[in-house]
Amino acid sequence: MHIEKWRAALPPDAWPDGLPEVGSVWRRDVFTVADAWRAEEASPRQLLSAVLMWGYGPIGYGPWRTARSLEGDPDGKRLDARARRAVHAGSGRRRPADRLPAPA
Predict the structure, then answer these.
(1) pTM (global) more than 0.85
(2) Exposed/middle/buried for residue 89 (C-beta within 10 Å: 0-12, 13-18, 19+)
(3) What span, in angstroms and rounded, lies between the C-alpha atoms of 36 and 38?
(4) Would residue 23 be called left, alpha or beta, if left means φ above 0 and alpha means ψ between -120 and 50 degrees?
(5) How far apart are CA 35 and CA 53, in angstroms?
């Protein structure tokens, strides 16, 4: 993985704290960012970046596609709403539809 290409392609606010400066992003790194997001210490944009870095790995178009995805939600509100829905759906707990944020 060329982590320096990822860093150059992504906006600074979307770069997760604590990721390695060189080398690879490992699954444990993604879990660390996910835990930080759940604790509201990482943004949804940082979470998406970590997930896609790990998912795309060394594939050359990964940084470009990730940057395009981030452009579609500059403040991260849509990402956050969908991630929280996924967490609730995966836990087996359902929140009433009127309490869920409306899709943007």
Answers:
(1) no
(2) exposed
(3) 5
(4) left
(5) 17
Q: Count Cα atoms within 13 angstroms, Cβ side, for 43.
A: 17
How do residues 13-50 score in pLDDT, each as one tens digit? 999 998 888 888 899 999 999 999 999 999 999 999 99
| pLDDT confidence tier of residue 58, bands split at 50, 70 and 90 | confident
Work out the number of other CB atoms within 10 angstroms of the CB of residue 59. Answer: 10
Identify whether the C-beta of residue 44 lies closer than 8 Å to the C-beta of residue 83.
yes
DSSP string across 41-60: SS-HHHHHHHHHHHHHTT-T
Give burial (CB, 10 Å; 0-12/13-18/19+) of 96. Answer: exposed
The phi, psi pair for 59, rounded to 5°, reads -60, 130
